[in-house]
Structure formats: structure tokens, C-alpha cells
Amino acid sequence: MAVKILSVDDETDLELLLTQFFRRQIRKGDYEFFFAHNGLEALQILLKHPDIAIILSDINMPEMDGLTLLAKVNEMRIPSLKCIMVSAYGDMDNIRHAMNGGAFDFATKPIDLDDLQLTIEKAVEQIEYIKRAQKEHAQLVDIRSDLSVAREIQQGILPRSFTLNLADAGSVDIYASMVAAKDVGGDFYDFFPIDDHRIGFAIADVSGKGVPAAIFMAVSHTLIKATGQRDLSSCECMRTVNDILCGESVGSMFVTVFYGIYDLTSGSIDFTNAGHNPPYILHADGTVERLKSACNLVLGAMEGIPYTSGALQLDPGDAFVMYTDGVTEAEDKNHAQFGDDRLETELAGLKGASSRQIVDTINAKVRDFVAGAPQSDDITQLVIRRK
Questions:
Q1: Do residues 220 and 249 lie in contact, with contact meaning Cβ atoms separated by under 8 Å?
Q2: With contact defined as beta carbons under 8 Å apart, do 284 and 318 qualify?
Q3: Which residues does residue 201 pair with via DSSP β-bridges, in sequence order?
Q4: CA-based nearest residue to 322, from 190, 199, 197
Q5: Is the alpha carbon torsion for 279, 284, 288, 292 positive or negative?
């Protein structure tokens, strides 16, 4: 599209001079000229043609001079609109005022048209740069808006209610949280009924960050829940989900998962650890035990591999504490990590605490530790406590 240039000058012979000098650019459609004889006429033309990109204005004119016109143009707040001011040779006071007032450049009379052409070309480069920046900014605003919606959708996937509509639901206390490092995250947790006395539960951490991780998270979450509700053992569930993910995985993404089946009546857990951080058992007497079990390969890495399950027993008052590495690898400003030892120490001080108290306390301790340092990974916890 042609660059639209508005020439504002009370000397009428300038119109003929400009159209003759820039005739090739006008014929090719590179430039389109408009002409006004004072600032008031210029403002009227700007109203009719708001896409004018360059104003070439004389300073000394009747009715409204160039400096007043420049001030009016500045009030429009159009960053891509550039003003080139023209004044008599030696009129440096007005030129200085024009430059201080936001003019892009200046020219002196008699106008050197070759020099003016270079100035216009320089202004066009600046205008194109500003328009590209504005377009990129608009795209970023759209992306931020989309990410905000994606965050709401992702948060909607995770359970927000921690009550179960089962006969023995009163025997268990469940709570979880996920704090994403970016607008959307790759961690997730879930729990769901399998039958009238058992629930499946999972905590997971997808490789990578941002939108790709969030999409892989949604797929993994759906597969685990759908497969778990088929009443498979924990290791069969992980094997099935792994084979599906391997067939669909893009960009070598994978997910670490701790998946278990909890019996509300007996307190027993059948679990399979697919490359995830080993959970802790906070016993009723306040002792903390790190779960020792076989750690299988992550999901989505290799098809057709077997998975080994384990079993544990939760006694009344015991809490089963699961987390992602965003907890233990949270860093302060000196890059020191929160660490396993600190997590164990904090858990030991939570004897008799509810699941929510455990989750909220650990989140608070991590925030206090990092002391405002940027969050580098999603922070997720899932706690199941047998009452």
C-alpha cells in the first residue's frame, strides 16, 4: 500500500515541486500525496484520512502554524505518524522547539529534495518498524488472552471438590493443589471412584513447560482416569496408558506418574510408580517414612514394557503425601533448593494435621524459602489421609 504523505505549506508552488520530483514513486503507488495550506486544513484532511503516515509541515503559516499543528498531532497519540518540520535556513529556535516537541526530523528552505527523499525513506523505515511492533504486541495480547482461557480450562480439569459420594467416604481425607509456573502447567493430580469402596488416584509431571506440556497433560490425565475406571490393577493401568502414549507421543514428551488404588475400607493401597518422586507416609505418631518401592520407566518413553506394582497399608491417622519435583527443587535467589531433607523435616512437624493443613503448610514453607525468586517449575501436592 502507498505511504500517505501530507504536505502542509502556504506556498502553493511546493505542491507542483513535490509531485514532479516524486512522480515515479506516485505512479508506482509507493507514495500518495495530500496537500494543505495551514494547520487547520491539515487537521481536516487527517480526519478524512487517518492512515496518513508522514506530515511534511512548514513552521510559519497563517491561521495555525506548524508548531501548533505538531502539538495537535501529538495529542492524537499515534506512534506511527511521523512529522518532518520545514523552516527557513537559520531559524534554529523554531527547529529546536519542533524537535523538542516530538518532530521526527527537519528540513530547511530552500528544500533539498534529494535530502528530503532520504528523510522520508528513513521515516518510512521507522513507521514500518513501529507497525510491526504494534502487530506483534496485538498478537501477544491475543496469546495472553488464549493462555488465560487455557489456564481456566486446565484448572477445570483438576478436581476442585475433595468430597467423595461413597459409603465409606467419611474414612478418608483428601486434598491437593497445583500451582503452575507459567500460565499453563504440565503437572496434574486426580482421584476418582472405581467402585463403591475403592478410588483411583494419581499425581504426575509432564516433561517440558508451557502449552505443549499442558496439552500432553490433558491427554495423559484423560487416559489415566478412563483406564483406571476399567478396574485394572495399578500396573496394568500404567502399562495400558504407556502403550497408548507411546503411539501418540509427539516431540519425545513423557510423563512421570504415581498411580494408586486406595481401599477405603481396609486402608490398603495398590500402587505403581512410573518414574515419579517417591511419596512419604506421615504416620499417626509423627514419624516420616519415605516409600521404598520399584521405580518403573516413565510413561510415553518406550512401548511394550512391563510395570511392577507395590502395596502398602495406611493405618488410622496416617497420611500419604505425594508431590512433584517442583516442591523439592524450588530454588531461592542463590539457587539453593528446598530439598528432600527440608520437606521431611517440615512433614515431621505436622503430626495429626489434616490433608489440607499439610498441603497449605508445605506450599507456605516453599514460598517462604524461595523468598520471591522466580518459580521455575509447577508445584503440585496430593495428600490422602486415613481418618
A1: no
A2: yes
A3: 191, 260
A4: 190
A5: negative
Given a contact cutoff of 8 angstroms between Cβ atoms, the answer to whether 193 and 223 are in contact is no
Query: Who wins on pLDDT, 57 or 293?
Result: 57
Residue 340, amino acid: D
| Torsion from C-alpha of 249, 251, 254, 255, nearest 10 degrees | -90
The pLDDT tens digits of the residues spanning 131-167 come to: 888 888 888 777 666 666 666 666 667 888 898 888 7
User: Could you tell me the three cell numbers for 258?
Assistant: 504415581
What are the C-alpha distances in Å from 268 to residues 20, 199, 386? 92, 11, 10
Q: What span, in angstroms and rounded, lies between the C-alpha atoms of 195 and 231?
A: 8
Whether 381 contacts 345, CB under 8 Å = no
Separation between Cα atoms, residue 97 and residue 103, nearest integer Å: 9
On whether the CB atoms of residues 25 and 3 are closer than 8 A, the answer is: no
Inter-residue contact 189 to 178 (CB < 8 Å): yes
Average pLDDT over residues 82-92: 83
Instruction: Beginning with the edge strand found earlier in the chain, give each strand of the sheet holding 31-36 in spatial order.
Output: 31-36, 3-8, 54-58, 82-88, 105-109
- Tell me how far apart the terminal alpha carbons of the chain are, to the nearest angstrom: 73
How confident is the prediction for the chain on average, in pLDDT? Answer: 90
pTM above 0.85, yes or no: no
Residue 94 identity (one-letter amino acid): N
Instruction: Please state the rounded mean pLDDT for residues 70-99.
Output: 86
Radius of gyration of the chain (CA): 34
> What pLDDT, on a 0 to 100 scale, did the predictor assign at position 143?
66
Using an 8 Å Cβ cutoff, are 195 and 231 in contact? yes
